[in-house]
Amino acid sequence: MKKNEKALVVFSGGQDSTTCLFWAMERFEEVEAVTFDYNQRHSSEIECAKTIAEELNIRHHILDMSLLNQLAPNALTRDDIEVKDGEGGGLPSTFVPGRNLLFMSFAGVLGSQVGARHIITGVCETDFSGYPDCRDIFVKSLNVTLNLSMDEDFVIHTPLMWLDKAETWQLADELGAFGFVREKTLTCYNGIIADGCGECPACRLRKNGLDEYLKVRKEQ
Ligand SMILES: [Zn+2]
């Protein structure tokens, strides 16, 4: 039974947020999506998100967040900075301080405007790669703050919070979206849809999870 309420999904066109979109569509009568445009290294990310939203017949909001680049030039937005994992426990070069705080806050403002009480985000603590604003405790704290700041009754949902990458593939499969997510989403830092370049950290993480899940799937 779907809830007769509206949900807003924070949506990048990647594997995680697309899985969240399907998760939301199964639970809520009305689903809209919001994508933040901050001059991502590849505008193909925005195009990919647009295409998916169109195909799923989801009302899609694209918000200009280019001011983020003024605050935090980093590997996701600048071509001259190399994408790499955090070394020696440091933050990865893709880290933008406060990015998720800003995105979630803007999602709250938009949610308030379009009457969406439920906000869904694909953040995940299991694959915690040093992003403090992807932690469960942060999301819970922000939920309280958003409600207090706008006198709203938001519920922030994080369906992927405790899943690893293989379990995220499994969730997509359970939602009947395995093929869709595999073929149409963009995770690769080099802007290549589906299986991607196979070389960048995002591709490697995606592939490891997929291989692990495919093994489990075969055994079933
Ligand atoms: Zn890649």
Structure notes:
- It is an enzyme of class 6 (ligase).
- GO terms for molecular function: ATP binding; ligase activity, forming carbon-nitrogen bonds; zinc ion binding.
- It catalyses: 7-carboxy-7-carbaguanine + NH4(+) + 2 ATP = 7-cyano-7-carbaguanine + 2 AMP + 2 diphosphate + 2 H(+).
- This is 7-cyano-7-deazaguanine synthase.
- Pfam families: QueC (PF06508).
- The protein has 220 residues and is an alpha/beta fold.
- It has one domain: 3-Layer(aba) Sandwich (Rossmann fold).
- Helix content is 44%, strand content 14%.
- The chain contains eight helices and five strands.
- A five-stranded parallel sheet has the order 3-2-1-4-5, with helices on both faces.
- Strand 1, helix 1 and strand 2 form a beta-alpha-beta unit.
- The longest helix has 19 residues, at 201-219.
- It is globular and about 50 Å long.
- The two termini are 28 Å apart.
- The model is unreliable at 85-91 (pLDDT under 50).
- It binds zinc ion.
Sum up the structure in keywords.
Rossmann fold, EC 6.3.4.20, zinc, 14% strand, queuosine biosynthesis, Rossmann-like_a/b/a_fold, single chain, alpha/beta, QueC
